[in-house]
């Protein structure tokens, strides 16, 4: 009698694979029989008025009607009131003559505004009261046409 070519380890591996395959088949059949897991009704989620995800549908009586004309798509146009008066007054909080730039503290908004030496009409120093036009610079608000207020 000759010995089998199959070792104990090979038999053990084959038995484990077979057992795993049978368990997988049982799970697949159980999922197929139960209607809970695969039903599309159980997969629906709703978002409430606060942005939270819930499983309950919204109440139709609390529904708000929105006019089509009220919906704005894109960037809103700027109002004319904002662009009317760009001339402001402020105090020079810092200015470096050698480097050619400084900052002005706006009197109304207390906002710090950048100023460059190329945009000066008069020579300025720290603590001077100046008038300037507010323009949009590459890194934020900037002062243009800066002159001393007498």
Helix and strand topology:
Blueprint: H1 8-33, E1 46-47, E2 53-54, H2 80-83, E3 87-96, E4 101-106, E5 112-116, E6 129-137, E7 140-148
Parallel strand pairs: 5-7
Antiparallel strand pairs: 1-2, 3-4, 3-6, 4-5, 6-7
What is the count of β-strands? 7
Percent of residues in helices: 10-25%
* Rounded Rg: 37 Å
CATH topology of the largest domain: OB fold (Dihydrolipoamide Acetyltransferase, E2P)
Which consecutive residue ranges, at least 5 long each, have pLDDT under 50?
Answer: none
User: Strand order of the main beta sheet, please?
Assistant: 3-4-5-7-6
Average per-residue pLDDT, rounded, comes to 85
Care to give the gist of this entry?
The protein has 150 residues and is of the alpha+beta class. The chain has two helices and seven strands, in the order H-E-E-H-E-E-E-E-E.
Description:
- The protein has 150 residues and is α+β, with helices and mostly antiparallel strands.
- The protein has 2 domains: 50 residues, no CATH class; 64 residues, Nucleic acid-binding proteins (OB fold (Dihydrolipoamide Acetyltransferase, E2P)).
- The chain is built from 2 helices and 7 strands; from the N terminus they run αββαβββββ.
- Strands 3-4-5-7-6 form a 5-stranded mixed beta barrel. Strands 1-2 form a two-stranded antiparallel ribbon.
- Strand 1 and strand 2 form a beta hairpin.
- The longest helix has 26 residues.
- The model has no long low-confidence stretch (mean pLDDT 85).
